[in-house]
Every structure is written in structure tokens, then in C-alpha cells.
Amino acid sequence: ATSSGCTAASYYGHGDGFHGRRTANGERFDGYGTTTAHRTLPFGTRLRVTNQSNGRSIIVRVTDRGPFIAGRGLDLSYGAFSSIAHPGQGVAKVCYAKIA
Fold first, then answer.
1. What angle do CA 68, 72, 34 make, to 5 degrees?
2. Which of 48, 70, 95, 98 could hold 6 in an S-S bridge, CB 3.0 to 4.6 Å?
3. Are residues 58 and 80 in contact, defined by beta-carbon separation less than 8 angstroms?
4. What gap in Å lies between CA 31 and CA 55, rounded to an integer?
5. pTM of the model
6. CA distance 46 to 68
7. Per DSSP, which regions of 1-100 are E strands?
8. Cα–Cα distance between 66 and 64 in angstroms, integer?
9. Which residues on neighbouring strands pair with residue 77, listed in sequence order?
């Protein structure tokens, strides 16, 4: 796994039943928080995620595993996704980098 790159990002935690459930690291998922799911990065890793189309960025923490759809590298919480992209688009092209 690389700790930086560009990928497609989707979101979860709004209208899908995930809000309040336990994530893969054991904490309760807050759909309106600033977290992300990644397949392999260690839990607690902080990433700066930047929307390639508008330059908006947010810092998120890896708390869950996923996404499980081919071609997507990050599954952001609804709150994180909405701060950098319109949720109506469903998927955004983003670049991400690990921050210390």
C-alpha cells in the first residue's frame, strides 16, 4: 500500500445504515465526522485528501476498511466528502497524502 496517490473516492454514512455502527478498528462510525476507509493503511493514519476538480482538501483519519468497489481507493465519511465535493456526484477524483 502506498501512503499517497490519486484515486476515486466515494462516501458512506448518510442514509445507508452505517452511521453509529462499529468500524473495523472498533470505534463508532460518525457519518458526519472526518474519517475514511482504506483497504490497507494502518488505523489512525492521517491523510490530507484533495479534490482534484476544485482544490478543496480535508484531513481525515483511517478508521475502517474498504471501499470494496473496484477502482475506488478511499471511502470517506459523508461529512468529509461533503466538505470537498457535492454528495450528489457520488464519487470524486482525489489525491491523498499521509501527514505526520
1. 90
2. 95
3. yes
4. 23
5. 0.94
6. 20
7. 4-12, 35-37, 46-51, 57-64, 72-77, 92-99
8. 7
9. 12
pLDDT tens string 55-87: 999 999 999 999 999 999 999 999 999 999 999
State the amino acid at position 58 in one-letter form: I
Smallest CA-to-CA distance from 74 within 82, 84, 64 is with: 64
Q: What is the mean pLDDT of residues 28-38?
A: 97
Q: Which residues pair with 13 in a beta bridge?
A: none
- The Cα–Cα gap between 73 and 2 comes to 11
Tell me the three cell numbers of residue 80: 468529509
- 49 in helix, strand or coil? strand
- Per-residue cell: 67: 471501499
- Examine residue 87 and say whether the peptide bond preceding it is cis (omega within 30 degrees of 0): no
Written as nine digits, the cell of 18 is: 452505517
Buried b (16+ CB within 10 A) or exposed e, 13-44: beeeebbeeebeeeeebbbebbbbbbeebeee
pLDDT at 3: 85
